[in-house]
Amino acid sequence: MSLPTVAIVGRPNVGKSTLFNRLVGKRIALVDDRPGVTRDRREGEGRLLDLEFRVMDTAGFEDHDPASLPGRMRAQTEAAVREADVALFLIDGREGLTPLDEEIARWLRSGKTPVVVAANKAEGSAGEAGRLEAFALGLGEPIAISAEHGEGLVDLFEVLRPHVEHEHFQTEAEEVEEGTGPLKMAIVGRPNAGKSTLVNKMLGEERMITGPEAGITRDSISLDWQWNEKAVRLVDTAGLRKRAKVEDKLEKLSAMDTRRAIDMAEVVVLLLDATRGLEAQDLRIADQVIEEGRALVIAINKWDVAEHASSLFNGVKAALEEGLSQLKGVPVLTVSAKTGKGIDQLLGAAFEVRDSWSKRIPTGELNRWFERAIEQNPPPAPGGKRIKLRYITQVKSRPPSFVVFGTRVDQLPTSYQRYLLNSMRRDLDLGPVPLRLTMRAPKNPFHNKG
User: Fold this and answer.
1) What pLDDT was estimated at residue 335?
2) What CATH number corresponds to the domain at position 211?
3) What secondary structure letter does DSSP report for 305?
4) Would residue 174 count as lying in a domain?
5) Any binding-site annotation on 201?
6) Which positions bind GTP 1 (predicted)?
């Protein structure tokens, strides 16, 4: 399925190739202060937050004999604009409008391709005068950007979004991003919680050295295997102790290795020792997993020898609810690494939370939820000034990450952001996985005041 197309147009040396390089994420187009460096149409796959599109860098638009080289370059530019879903017309915000800018605007107005105008080289407020001048082009409200420094990209996202956001394309992207490869699962916990014994039981063979001495496992070991015809990449890690107790150099390296394993994992299983219950260090490990944005499952091991099992389980759940207040409802299961009981349930829960962790919500569904959530509980008005939340978009999955656009969002209380996250988990079936929520406001001082 073809991507929507953005054609960057403008007179020579306004920064078209610099913007092209920024959108495609690599230096493909040559950039130089001399005009005329770009001669052909150059294409690449661009990305801006969650928008994906084909971007075309065109030669500078000049008025020359069609048979000359500049004339042929202009013909290429005209063809690019005809093919595009939207033309991004770049002017130099510092220089302001020129007669050639006005000529290009007349040509763009005569065509059928939608046009958005951006005043480039507008670091800080350097291009504000040029941006305001560009209103005279009759092509709608111009935005201010700096292609070189990456400023104004949120505003660029806003103006391009209506032209290049296609639900059918995002659905295709969802399928690509959904976790269909091996489940990357790290097993972490305090020393001697039974991690290696659990791995051996899962594999059905003695792959790990085990014993009563804490700290036998020094390295993170990656193992590929199958569970119910599903691929699993299992990482058994060295135990994490309190930093104050990590004195031995080898143990320091093991702790670093465990942190790397968490970073590489999709799902992290925190293994507790039923004979010792939940300790402060367990909560610190769990907090680290959540901070790293990984999906978390808690497994209480040695359940076959646990005393007062029911009160122990309820106590662990209550302590987790209190100690992990930022993420409610983390799955808690009981296992016995020695007998193998509970291992199937543990793996089933791990695959389930990975599905939630990899989930993408279609933009339409997400914004319908957003409108309902705001209607049910409008944002506050600090100092009598209304905070207006305009729309939300998912910028990535694994973990699901969202950006909310609006005005005065810097004054939105943390409690309201927490309300949005909790509603999202409940209404969009995102489950107990870390979510990321960022607030963004347009930078243009005259943008949609009110």
Assistant:
1) 96
2) 3.40.50.300
3) G
4) no
5) no
6) 10-17, 57-61, 120-123
